Amino acid sequence: MGAFGSNGSSSMSIVMYPWLAFGHMTPFLHLSNKLAEKGHKIVFLLPKKALTQLEPLNLYPNLITFHTISIPQVKGLPPGAETNSDVPYFLTYLLRVAMNQTRPEVETIFHTIKPDLVFFDTADWIPEVAKPVGAKTVCFNIVSAAAIALSLVPAAERKVIDGNEMSGEELAKTPLGYPSSKVVLRAHEAKTLNFMWKKREGTACFFDVKVTTMRNCDAIAIRTCRETEGKFCDYISSQYNKPVYLTGPVLPGTKPNHHLLESRWVEWLAKFNPGSVVFCAFGSQPVVDKIDQFQELFLGLESTGLPFLIAIKPPTGVSTVEEALPEGFEERVQGRGIVFGGWIQQPLVLDHPSVGCFVSHCGFGPMWESLMSDCQIVLVPQHGEQILNARLMTEEMEVAVEVEREENGWFSRRSLENAVKSVMEEGSEVGEKVRKNHDKWKCVLAESGFADGYIDKFEQSLIDLVKS
Ligand SMILES: C[C@@H]1O[C@@H](OC[C@H]2O[C@@H](Oc3cc4c(O)cc(O)cc4[o+]c3-c3ccc(O)c(O)c3)[C@H](O)[C@@H](O)[C@@H]2O)[C@H](O)[C@H](O)[C@H]1O
Ligand SMILES: O=c1ccn([C@@H]2O[C@H](COP(=O)(O)OP(=O)(O)O[C@H]3OC[C@@H](O)[C@H](O)[C@H]3O)[C@@H](O)[C@H]2O)c(=O)[nH]1
Protein backbone atom coordinates (compact mmCIF):
# COMPACT_ATOMS: atom_id res chain seq x y z
CA MET A 1 0.00 0.00 0.00
CA GLY A 2 1.51 3.33 -1.04
CA ALA A 3 1.42 6.77 0.57
CA PHE A 4 -1.97 8.41 1.00
CA GLY A 5 -3.40 11.90 1.03
CA SER A 6 -3.56 15.01 -1.07
CA ASN A 7 0.23 15.31 -1.29
CA GLY A 8 0.91 11.58 -1.45
CA SER A 9 1.59 9.51 -4.53
CA SER A 10 -1.56 7.44 -4.44
CA SER A 11 -5.19 7.91 -3.57
CA MET A 12 -7.69 5.77 -1.71
CA SER A 13 -10.32 3.78 -3.52
CA ILE A 14 -13.67 4.16 -1.75
CA VAL A 15 -17.12 2.64 -2.24
CA MET A 16 -20.18 4.39 -0.78
CA TYR A 17 -23.45 2.53 -0.21
CA PRO A 18 -25.90 4.72 1.72
CA TRP A 19 -29.45 3.95 2.89
CA LEU A 20 -31.85 4.46 -0.03
CA ALA A 21 -33.17 7.80 1.25
CA PHE A 22 -32.27 11.22 -0.15
CA GLY A 23 -31.53 12.46 3.37
CA HIS A 24 -28.74 9.83 3.42
CA MET A 25 -27.57 9.70 -0.22
CA THR A 26 -27.18 13.50 -0.39
CA PRO A 27 -24.73 13.89 2.53
CA PHE A 28 -22.84 10.75 1.40
CA LEU A 29 -22.37 12.51 -1.94
CA HIS A 30 -21.34 15.79 -0.30
CA LEU A 31 -18.70 13.82 1.63
CA SER A 32 -17.63 12.08 -1.59
CA ASN A 33 -17.04 15.52 -3.11
CA LYS A 34 -14.84 16.54 -0.18
CA LEU A 35 -12.77 13.33 -0.49
CA ALA A 36 -12.57 13.62 -4.28
CA GLU A 37 -11.30 17.18 -3.83
CA LYS A 38 -8.34 15.54 -2.06
CA GLY A 39 -7.78 13.16 -4.96
CA HIS A 40 -9.54 10.02 -3.74
CA LYS A 41 -11.62 7.87 -6.09
CA ILE A 42 -15.18 7.00 -5.23
CA VAL A 43 -17.67 4.51 -6.62
CA PHE A 44 -21.12 5.57 -5.42
CA LEU A 45 -23.79 2.85 -5.34
CA LEU A 46 -27.34 4.10 -5.75
CA PRO A 47 -30.72 3.16 -7.26
CA LYS A 48 -31.32 4.27 -10.84
CA LYS A 49 -34.15 6.60 -9.87
CA ALA A 50 -31.90 8.69 -7.64
CA LEU A 51 -29.55 9.64 -10.50
CA THR A 52 -31.57 12.65 -11.68
CA GLN A 53 -31.40 14.33 -8.29
CA LEU A 54 -27.83 13.36 -7.42
CA GLU A 55 -25.99 13.82 -10.72
CA PRO A 56 -26.05 17.64 -10.56
CA LEU A 57 -24.48 17.48 -7.09
CA ASN A 58 -21.44 15.52 -8.30
CA LEU A 59 -18.69 18.13 -8.42
CA TYR A 60 -15.95 15.68 -9.49
CA PRO A 61 -17.39 13.39 -12.21
CA ASN A 62 -13.83 12.38 -13.12
CA LEU A 63 -13.32 10.89 -9.66
CA ILE A 64 -16.84 10.03 -8.46
CA THR A 65 -18.52 7.31 -10.52
CA PHE A 66 -22.16 6.47 -10.04
CA HIS A 67 -22.91 2.75 -10.21
CA THR A 68 -26.60 1.89 -10.27
CA ILE A 69 -27.88 -1.03 -8.21
CA SER A 70 -31.08 -2.93 -9.06
CA ILE A 71 -33.49 -2.67 -6.17
CA PRO A 72 -35.61 -5.84 -6.17
CA GLN A 73 -39.38 -5.74 -6.03
CA VAL A 74 -40.48 -6.77 -2.54
CA LYS A 75 -44.06 -7.77 -1.80
CA GLY A 76 -45.88 -4.88 -0.13
CA LEU A 77 -43.77 -2.09 -1.65
CA PRO A 78 -45.34 0.11 -4.35
CA PRO A 79 -44.30 -1.14 -7.84
CA GLY A 80 -41.00 0.37 -8.93
CA ALA A 81 -40.15 1.66 -5.45
CA GLU A 82 -36.42 2.32 -5.13
CA THR A 83 -36.03 5.18 -2.65
CA ASN A 84 -37.81 6.54 0.42
CA SER A 85 -39.58 9.08 -1.82
CA ASP A 86 -41.56 6.21 -3.36
CA VAL A 87 -42.59 4.69 -0.04
CA PRO A 88 -44.96 5.78 2.73
CA TYR A 89 -43.15 6.17 6.06
CA PHE A 90 -44.75 3.11 7.70
CA LEU A 91 -43.50 0.83 4.89
CA THR A 92 -39.89 1.98 5.04
CA TYR A 93 -38.77 -1.30 6.62
CA LEU A 94 -39.65 -3.09 3.35
CA LEU A 95 -37.15 -0.91 1.55
CA ARG A 96 -34.61 -2.25 4.04
CA VAL A 97 -35.65 -5.80 3.07
CA ALA A 98 -35.11 -4.87 -0.59
CA MET A 99 -31.70 -3.36 0.18
CA ASN A 100 -30.64 -6.59 1.92
CA GLN A 101 -31.39 -8.49 -1.28
CA THR A 102 -28.81 -6.43 -3.19
CA ARG A 103 -26.00 -8.19 -1.28
CA PRO A 104 -24.87 -10.53 -4.14
CA GLU A 105 -24.58 -7.59 -6.58
CA VAL A 106 -22.62 -5.52 -4.05
CA GLU A 107 -20.36 -8.49 -3.29
CA THR A 108 -19.47 -8.77 -6.99
CA ILE A 109 -18.70 -5.05 -7.17
CA PHE A 110 -16.37 -5.29 -4.15
CA HIS A 111 -14.52 -8.22 -5.74
CA THR A 112 -14.04 -6.22 -8.94
CA ILE A 113 -13.02 -2.91 -7.36
CA LYS A 114 -11.21 -4.18 -4.25
CA PRO A 115 -11.71 -0.86 -2.43
CA ASP A 116 -9.59 0.36 0.47
CA LEU A 117 -12.65 1.69 2.27
CA VAL A 118 -16.41 1.18 2.26
CA PHE A 119 -18.83 3.76 3.70
CA PHE A 120 -22.30 2.51 4.66
CA ASP A 121 -24.99 3.11 7.26
CA THR A 122 -27.81 0.58 7.03
CA ALA A 123 -26.76 -2.63 5.25
CA ASP A 124 -25.42 -4.45 8.32
CA TRP A 125 -23.80 -7.19 6.18
CA ILE A 126 -21.31 -4.79 4.61
CA PRO A 127 -18.45 -5.62 7.04
CA GLU A 128 -18.83 -9.35 6.17
CA VAL A 129 -18.62 -8.59 2.47
CA ALA A 130 -15.82 -6.04 2.75
CA LYS A 131 -13.45 -8.05 4.93
CA PRO A 132 -12.59 -10.78 2.36
CA VAL A 133 -11.47 -8.12 -0.14
CA GLY A 134 -9.37 -6.35 2.51
CA ALA A 135 -11.50 -3.21 2.74
CA LYS A 136 -12.00 -1.28 5.97
CA THR A 137 -15.57 -0.21 6.78
CA VAL A 138 -16.89 3.11 8.06
CA CYS A 139 -20.44 3.39 9.40
CA PHE A 140 -21.18 7.00 8.40
CA ASN A 141 -24.16 8.35 10.30
CA ILE A 142 -25.92 11.34 8.80
CA VAL A 143 -28.41 11.80 11.63
CA SER A 144 -27.58 13.81 14.76
CA ALA A 145 -25.25 12.37 17.39
CA ALA A 146 -28.04 13.16 19.87
CA ALA A 147 -30.46 10.82 18.06
CA ILE A 148 -27.90 8.01 18.08
CA ALA A 149 -26.93 8.62 21.71
CA LEU A 150 -30.54 8.52 22.88
CA SER A 151 -31.63 5.27 21.28
CA LEU A 152 -28.97 3.49 19.26
CA VAL A 153 -26.33 2.61 21.84
CA PRO A 154 -25.99 -0.65 23.82
CA ALA A 155 -27.28 1.07 26.99
CA ALA A 156 -30.58 1.80 25.20
CA GLU A 157 -31.34 -1.90 24.71
CA ARG A 158 -34.91 -2.80 25.67
CA LYS A 159 -36.72 -6.04 26.25
CA VAL A 160 -39.86 -6.32 24.19
CA ILE A 161 -42.39 -8.41 26.10
CA ASP A 162 -44.52 -10.77 23.95
CA GLY A 163 -44.13 -8.48 20.94
CA ASN A 164 -46.06 -5.69 22.72
CA GLU A 165 -45.45 -2.03 22.01
CA MET A 166 -43.76 -0.11 24.83
CA SER A 167 -45.36 2.86 26.56
CA GLY A 168 -44.25 6.40 25.83
CA GLU A 169 -43.06 6.68 29.46
CA GLU A 170 -40.83 3.62 29.05
CA LEU A 171 -39.41 4.83 25.73
CA ALA A 172 -38.81 8.36 27.02
CA LYS A 173 -36.30 7.05 29.61
CA THR A 174 -32.81 8.07 28.59
CA PRO A 175 -30.01 5.47 28.64
CA LEU A 176 -27.64 5.49 31.61
CA GLY A 177 -25.10 8.29 31.25
CA TYR A 178 -26.98 10.11 28.43
CA PRO A 179 -25.47 13.59 28.52
CA SER A 180 -28.43 15.98 28.20
CA SER A 181 -31.61 16.82 30.08
CA LYS A 182 -32.77 19.16 27.31
CA VAL A 183 -32.41 17.07 24.15
CA VAL A 184 -34.98 14.49 25.21
CA LEU A 185 -38.41 13.25 24.15
CA ARG A 186 -41.67 13.71 26.02
CA ALA A 187 -43.67 10.53 26.62
CA HIS A 188 -46.15 11.11 23.79
CA GLU A 189 -43.28 11.87 21.38
CA ALA A 190 -41.24 8.86 22.47
CA LYS A 191 -43.98 6.54 21.24
CA THR A 192 -42.62 7.19 17.72
CA LEU A 193 -39.54 5.14 18.77
CA ASN A 194 -41.50 1.88 19.00
CA PHE A 195 -40.50 1.01 15.44
CA MET A 196 -36.92 0.47 16.58
CA TRP A 197 -37.70 -2.70 18.51
CA LYS A 198 -40.45 -4.03 16.27
CA LYS A 199 -39.66 -7.44 14.75
CA ARG A 200 -40.34 -7.54 11.01
CA GLU A 201 -40.38 -10.43 8.61
CA GLY A 202 -37.25 -10.60 6.47
CA THR A 203 -35.12 -8.20 8.53
CA ALA A 204 -33.85 -7.70 12.07
CA CYS A 205 -35.33 -4.87 14.14
CA PHE A 206 -33.94 -1.38 13.50
CA PHE A 207 -32.14 -1.21 16.88
CA ASP A 208 -30.34 -4.51 16.26
CA VAL A 209 -29.38 -3.49 12.73
CA LYS A 210 -27.95 -0.16 13.84
CA VAL A 211 -26.12 -1.49 16.89
CA THR A 212 -24.66 -4.32 14.76
CA THR A 213 -23.43 -1.87 12.11
CA MET A 214 -21.72 0.27 14.72
CA ARG A 215 -20.22 -2.71 16.58
CA ASN A 216 -18.90 -4.48 13.48
CA CYS A 217 -17.56 -1.56 11.45
CA ASP A 218 -13.92 -0.53 11.68
CA ALA A 219 -14.84 3.07 12.44
CA ILE A 220 -17.92 5.10 13.34
CA ALA A 221 -18.27 8.49 11.65
CA ILE A 222 -20.91 11.16 12.21
CA ARG A 223 -21.83 14.19 10.14
CA THR A 224 -21.55 16.64 12.99
CA CYS A 225 -19.08 18.79 14.87
CA ARG A 226 -17.85 19.03 18.46
CA GLU A 227 -19.08 22.60 18.81
CA THR A 228 -22.71 21.52 18.49
CA GLU A 229 -22.71 17.90 19.70
CA GLY A 230 -19.37 17.11 21.39
CA LYS A 231 -20.88 15.55 24.51
CA PHE A 232 -23.14 13.22 22.48
CA CYS A 233 -20.18 12.07 20.37
CA ASP A 234 -18.10 11.30 23.49
CA TYR A 235 -21.00 9.29 24.87
CA ILE A 236 -21.33 7.23 21.67
CA SER A 237 -17.59 6.64 21.63
CA SER A 238 -17.68 5.36 25.22
CA GLN A 239 -20.69 3.13 24.48
CA TYR A 240 -19.01 1.44 21.51
CA ASN A 241 -15.51 1.66 22.91
CA LYS A 242 -14.10 3.02 19.66
CA PRO A 243 -13.22 6.45 18.32
CA VAL A 244 -15.91 8.44 16.56
CA TYR A 245 -14.67 10.42 13.56
CA LEU A 246 -16.44 13.70 12.84
CA THR A 247 -16.81 15.06 9.33
CA GLY A 248 -18.17 18.49 10.31
CA PRO A 249 -21.26 19.88 8.52
CA VAL A 250 -20.20 18.68 5.01
CA LEU A 251 -22.08 21.17 2.89
CA PRO A 252 -21.26 21.58 -0.82
CA GLY A 253 -20.17 25.25 -0.73
CA THR A 254 -19.99 27.33 -3.88
CA LYS A 255 -18.26 25.66 -6.76
CA PRO A 256 -17.86 26.82 -10.36
CA ASN A 257 -20.35 24.23 -11.65
CA HIS A 258 -22.86 24.99 -8.90
CA HIS A 259 -26.16 24.71 -10.75
CA LEU A 260 -28.67 27.52 -10.91
CA LEU A 261 -32.08 27.79 -9.36
CA GLU A 262 -34.80 26.91 -11.89
CA SER A 263 -36.15 30.00 -13.62
CA ARG A 264 -39.77 29.40 -12.50
CA TRP A 265 -38.67 29.88 -8.86
CA VAL A 266 -36.35 32.77 -9.67
CA GLU A 267 -39.20 34.57 -11.43
CA TRP A 268 -41.78 33.84 -8.74
CA LEU A 269 -39.51 34.77 -5.81
CA ALA A 270 -38.45 38.00 -7.53
CA LYS A 271 -41.99 39.38 -7.02
CA PHE A 272 -41.51 39.70 -3.28
CA ASN A 273 -39.53 41.91 -0.90
CA PRO A 274 -36.23 40.69 0.52
CA GLY A 275 -36.69 38.36 3.46
CA SER A 276 -40.49 38.26 3.17
CA VAL A 277 -41.23 34.77 1.76
CA VAL A 278 -41.84 31.71 3.97
CA PHE A 279 -40.35 28.55 2.43
CA CYS A 280 -41.84 25.37 3.84
CA ALA A 281 -40.26 22.00 2.94
CA PHE A 282 -40.70 18.61 4.55
CA GLY A 283 -38.01 16.50 2.91
CA SER A 284 -38.00 13.80 0.32
CA GLN A 285 -40.39 11.33 1.96
CA PRO A 286 -44.17 11.65 2.48
CA VAL A 287 -44.16 12.38 6.22
CA VAL A 288 -47.44 14.14 6.99
CA ASP A 289 -49.75 11.19 6.53
CA LYS A 290 -53.11 12.45 7.79
CA ILE A 291 -54.90 14.62 5.27
CA ASP A 292 -56.49 16.91 7.88
CA GLN A 293 -53.06 17.61 9.42
CA PHE A 294 -51.66 18.16 5.94
CA GLN A 295 -54.36 20.74 5.26
CA GLU A 296 -53.88 22.40 8.66
CA LEU A 297 -50.28 23.11 7.67
CA PHE A 298 -51.46 24.92 4.54
CA LEU A 299 -54.15 26.83 6.42
CA GLY A 300 -51.59 27.93 9.02
CA LEU A 301 -49.34 29.37 6.33
CA GLU A 302 -52.33 31.04 4.67
CA SER A 303 -53.21 32.69 8.02
CA THR A 304 -49.78 34.31 8.33
CA GLY A 305 -50.70 36.66 5.48
CA LEU A 306 -47.13 36.28 4.18
CA PRO A 307 -46.06 35.03 0.75
CA PHE A 308 -45.14 31.33 0.89
CA LEU A 309 -43.76 28.45 -1.14
CA ILE A 310 -44.54 24.93 0.10
CA ALA A 311 -42.58 21.91 -1.21
CA ILE A 312 -44.13 18.76 0.17
CA LYS A 313 -44.88 15.19 -0.90
CA PRO A 314 -48.59 14.23 -0.98
CA PRO A 315 -50.01 12.27 1.96
CA THR A 316 -50.45 8.49 1.67
CA GLY A 317 -53.37 7.51 -0.56
CA VAL A 318 -53.34 10.75 -2.57
CA SER A 319 -51.33 10.94 -5.77
CA THR A 320 -50.79 14.70 -6.08
CA VAL A 321 -50.59 17.57 -3.59
CA GLU A 322 -53.21 19.46 -5.61
CA GLU A 323 -55.80 16.78 -4.75
CA ALA A 324 -55.13 17.26 -1.05
CA LEU A 325 -55.47 21.07 -0.86
CA PRO A 326 -58.08 22.60 1.47
CA GLU A 327 -61.23 23.82 -0.27
CA GLY A 328 -60.92 27.23 -1.93
CA PHE A 329 -57.25 27.43 -0.86
CA GLU A 330 -55.76 28.03 -4.32
CA GLU A 331 -58.13 30.92 -5.09
CA ARG A 332 -57.57 32.56 -1.69
CA VAL A 333 -53.77 32.48 -1.86
CA GLN A 334 -53.41 33.17 -5.57
CA GLY A 335 -50.50 35.48 -6.25
CA ARG A 336 -48.83 34.94 -2.87
CA GLY A 337 -48.81 31.20 -2.19
CA ILE A 338 -47.59 28.18 -4.19
CA VAL A 339 -47.65 24.47 -3.38
CA PHE A 340 -45.28 22.12 -5.20
CA GLY A 341 -45.16 18.33 -4.90
CA GLY A 342 -42.00 17.66 -6.94
CA TRP A 343 -38.28 17.92 -6.29
CA ILE A 344 -37.13 21.45 -5.49
CA GLN A 345 -33.54 22.72 -5.23
CA GLN A 346 -33.90 23.33 -1.52
CA PRO A 347 -30.46 24.82 -0.69
CA LEU A 348 -30.77 27.26 -3.61
CA VAL A 349 -34.28 28.35 -2.56
CA LEU A 350 -32.98 28.94 0.98
CA ASP A 351 -30.21 31.12 -0.47
CA HIS A 352 -32.64 33.32 -2.41
CA PRO A 353 -32.77 36.87 -1.00
CA SER A 354 -36.60 36.98 -0.97
CA VAL A 355 -36.78 33.98 1.38
CA GLY A 356 -36.81 35.04 5.05
CA CYS A 357 -38.25 32.06 6.91
CA PHE A 358 -37.79 28.28 6.63
CA VAL A 359 -40.51 26.02 8.00
CA SER A 360 -38.90 22.58 8.16
CA HIS A 361 -39.53 19.01 9.37
CA CYS A 362 -36.00 19.24 10.79
CA GLY A 363 -34.33 16.33 9.02
CA PHE A 364 -30.62 16.58 9.85
CA GLY A 365 -29.66 17.71 6.32
CA PRO A 366 -32.14 20.57 6.27
CA MET A 367 -30.99 21.45 9.80
CA TRP A 368 -27.45 22.14 8.54
CA GLU A 369 -28.80 23.92 5.46
CA SER A 370 -30.97 26.17 7.63
CA LEU A 371 -28.08 26.98 9.97
CA MET A 372 -25.96 28.09 7.01
CA SER A 373 -28.78 30.27 5.63
CA ASP A 374 -29.91 33.70 6.80
CA CYS A 375 -33.52 32.54 7.29
CA GLN A 376 -35.51 32.50 10.49
CA ILE A 377 -36.22 28.87 11.39
CA VAL A 378 -39.55 27.30 12.38
CA LEU A 379 -39.62 23.57 13.13
CA VAL A 380 -42.44 21.06 12.74
CA PRO A 381 -40.63 17.76 13.45
CA GLN A 382 -42.55 14.58 12.63
CA HIS A 383 -40.61 11.63 14.09
CA GLY A 384 -38.23 10.81 16.96
CA GLU A 385 -34.96 11.82 15.36
CA GLN A 386 -36.41 15.02 13.89
CA ILE A 387 -37.88 15.94 17.28
CA LEU A 388 -34.43 15.53 18.86
CA ASN A 389 -32.85 17.67 16.16
CA ALA A 390 -35.50 20.28 16.88
CA ARG A 391 -34.70 20.19 20.64
CA LEU A 392 -31.03 20.69 19.82
CA MET A 393 -31.93 23.74 17.72
CA THR A 394 -34.45 25.24 20.17
CA GLU A 395 -33.23 24.25 23.65
CA GLU A 396 -29.44 24.01 23.32
CA MET A 397 -28.55 26.31 20.43
CA GLU A 398 -31.66 28.54 20.71
CA VAL A 399 -31.66 29.35 17.01
CA ALA A 400 -35.21 28.27 16.12
CA VAL A 401 -38.78 27.98 17.37
CA GLU A 402 -40.80 24.77 17.39
CA VAL A 403 -44.51 24.65 16.58
CA GLU A 404 -46.53 23.59 19.61
CA ARG A 405 -48.39 20.31 19.41
CA GLU A 406 -51.14 18.82 21.50
CA GLU A 407 -50.58 15.54 23.41
CA ASN A 408 -52.11 13.57 20.56
CA GLY A 409 -49.47 14.97 18.23
CA TRP A 410 -51.80 17.38 16.42
CA PHE A 411 -50.66 20.92 15.60
CA SER A 412 -53.21 23.59 14.79
CA ARG A 413 -53.10 26.23 12.07
CA ARG A 414 -53.03 28.79 14.90
CA SER A 415 -49.88 27.32 16.52
CA LEU A 416 -48.12 27.31 13.16
CA GLU A 417 -49.24 30.86 12.39
CA ASN A 418 -48.07 32.01 15.86
CA ALA A 419 -44.68 30.34 15.45
CA VAL A 420 -44.08 31.95 12.05
CA LYS A 421 -45.25 35.36 13.25
CA SER A 422 -43.08 35.09 16.37
CA VAL A 423 -39.96 35.05 14.21
CA MET A 424 -41.13 37.22 11.31
CA GLU A 425 -42.83 40.17 12.99
CA GLU A 426 -40.67 43.20 13.49
CA GLY A 427 -39.77 43.87 17.12
CA SER A 428 -40.64 40.34 18.28
CA GLU A 429 -38.41 39.45 21.24
CA VAL A 430 -38.29 35.75 20.32
CA GLY A 431 -37.53 36.64 16.72
CA GLU A 432 -34.63 38.85 17.74
CA LYS A 433 -33.21 36.27 20.14
CA VAL A 434 -33.16 33.42 17.63
CA ARG A 435 -31.78 35.67 14.90
CA LYS A 436 -28.92 36.78 17.14
CA ASN A 437 -28.07 33.20 18.15
CA HIS A 438 -28.42 31.97 14.58
CA ASP A 439 -26.01 34.69 13.37
CA LYS A 440 -23.50 33.64 16.04
CA TRP A 441 -23.66 29.97 15.06
CA LYS A 442 -23.47 30.78 11.37
CA CYS A 443 -20.28 32.78 12.04
CA VAL A 444 -18.75 29.77 13.79
CA LEU A 445 -19.77 27.25 11.12
CA ALA A 446 -18.99 29.43 8.12
CA GLU A 447 -15.65 30.68 9.43
CA SER A 448 -12.85 30.14 6.98
CA GLY A 449 -11.07 26.88 7.75
CA PHE A 450 -13.79 25.51 10.05
CA ALA A 451 -15.37 22.92 7.73
CA ASP A 452 -12.08 22.26 5.90
CA GLY A 453 -10.35 21.65 9.23
CA TYR A 454 -12.83 18.88 10.00
CA ILE A 455 -12.37 17.31 6.57
CA ASP A 456 -8.56 17.45 6.81
CA LYS A 457 -8.63 15.67 10.17
CA PHE A 458 -11.22 13.20 8.91
CA GLU A 459 -9.13 12.36 5.84
CA GLN A 460 -6.10 11.75 8.07
CA SER A 461 -8.13 9.37 10.28
CA LEU A 462 -9.17 7.43 7.17
CA ILE A 463 -5.60 7.20 5.93
CA ASP A 464 -4.47 5.92 9.35
CA LEU A 465 -7.34 3.42 9.34
CA VAL A 466 -6.47 2.05 5.90
CA LYS A 467 -2.81 1.74 6.84
CA SER A 468 -3.56 0.03 10.17
C1 LIG B 1 -41.28 3.04 10.14
C2 LIG B 1 -39.82 2.64 10.24
O1 LIG B 1 -39.12 3.31 9.25
C3 LIG B 1 -37.74 3.08 9.10
O2 LIG B 1 -36.99 4.06 9.71
C4 LIG B 1 -37.50 5.35 9.80
C5 LIG B 1 -36.50 6.40 9.40
O3 LIG B 1 -35.31 6.22 10.16
C6 LIG B 1 -34.38 7.22 9.98
O4 LIG B 1 -33.23 6.90 10.72
C7 LIG B 1 -33.16 7.07 12.07
C8 LIG B 1 -34.27 7.42 12.80
C9 LIG B 1 -34.13 7.64 14.19
C10 LIG B 1 -35.21 8.03 15.00
O5 LIG B 1 -36.41 8.17 14.48
C11 LIG B 1 -34.99 8.29 16.38
C12 LIG B 1 -33.72 8.15 16.93
O6 LIG B 1 -33.50 8.41 18.23
C13 LIG B 1 -32.63 7.74 16.13
C14 LIG B 1 -32.85 7.50 14.77
O7 LIG B 1 -31.81 7.13 14.04
C15 LIG B 1 -31.91 6.90 12.71
C16 LIG B 1 -30.66 6.50 12.07
C17 LIG B 1 -29.46 6.63 12.77
C18 LIG B 1 -28.25 6.29 12.25
C19 LIG B 1 -28.19 5.79 10.98
O8 LIG B 1 -26.99 5.44 10.42
C20 LIG B 1 -29.34 5.63 10.27
O9 LIG B 1 -29.21 5.14 9.03
C21 LIG B 1 -30.57 6.00 10.81
C22 LIG B 1 -33.99 7.38 8.51
O10 LIG B 1 -33.23 8.55 8.38
C23 LIG B 1 -35.22 7.52 7.63
O11 LIG B 1 -34.84 7.51 6.25
C24 LIG B 1 -36.21 6.39 7.90
O12 LIG B 1 -37.40 6.61 7.16
C25 LIG B 1 -37.18 1.78 9.50
O13 LIG B 1 -36.76 1.13 8.31
C26 LIG B 1 -38.11 0.94 10.33
O14 LIG B 1 -37.81 -0.41 10.19
C27 LIG B 1 -39.58 1.19 10.00
O15 LIG B 1 -40.40 0.43 10.80
O1 LIG C 1 -37.52 18.42 -2.84
C1 LIG C 1 -36.46 18.24 -2.21
C2 LIG C 1 -36.33 17.37 -1.08
C3 LIG C 1 -35.11 17.27 -0.46
N1 LIG C 1 -34.04 17.97 -0.93
C4 LIG C 1 -32.71 17.82 -0.34
O2 LIG C 1 -32.51 16.47 0.01
C5 LIG C 1 -31.92 16.36 1.27
C6 LIG C 1 -32.68 15.33 2.04
O3 LIG C 1 -33.73 15.85 2.71
P1 LIG C 1 -34.17 15.26 4.12
O4 LIG C 1 -33.03 15.30 5.10
O5 LIG C 1 -35.38 15.90 4.52
O6 LIG C 1 -34.34 13.80 3.66
P2 LIG C 1 -35.24 12.64 4.03
O7 LIG C 1 -36.65 13.03 3.83
O8 LIG C 1 -34.69 11.47 3.26
O9 LIG C 1 -34.89 12.49 5.57
C7 LIG C 1 -34.54 11.29 6.25
O10 LIG C 1 -33.13 11.18 6.37
C8 LIG C 1 -32.45 12.15 7.16
C9 LIG C 1 -33.10 12.30 8.52
O11 LIG C 1 -32.50 13.33 9.27
C10 LIG C 1 -34.58 12.56 8.35
O12 LIG C 1 -35.20 12.72 9.60
C11 LIG C 1 -35.20 11.41 7.61
O13 LIG C 1 -36.59 11.58 7.45
C12 LIG C 1 -31.94 17.71 1.94
O14 LIG C 1 -30.65 18.06 2.27
C13 LIG C 1 -32.58 18.66 0.92
O15 LIG C 1 -31.84 19.79 0.66
C14 LIG C 1 -34.16 18.80 -1.99
O16 LIG C 1 -33.18 19.47 -2.41
N2 LIG C 1 -35.35 18.90 -2.60
UniProtKB/TrEMBL annotation:
CDD domains tied to this protein: GT1_Gtf-like
Keywords carried by this UniProt record: Transferase
Domain of life: Eukaryota
InterPro entries on file: UDP-glycosyltransf_plant, UDP_glucos_trans
Pfam families per record: UDPGT
PANTHER family associated with the record: ANTHOCYANIDIN 3-O-GLUCOSIDE 2'''-O-XYLOSYLTRANSFERASE-RELATED, GLYCOSYLTRANSFERASE
Family statement: Belongs to the UDP-glycosyltransferase family.
Protein name: Anthocyanidin 3-O-glucoside 2'''-O-xylosyltransferase-like
UniProt organism field: Camelina sativa (False flax)
Lineage: Eukaryota, Viridiplantae, Streptophyta, Embryophyta, Tracheophyta
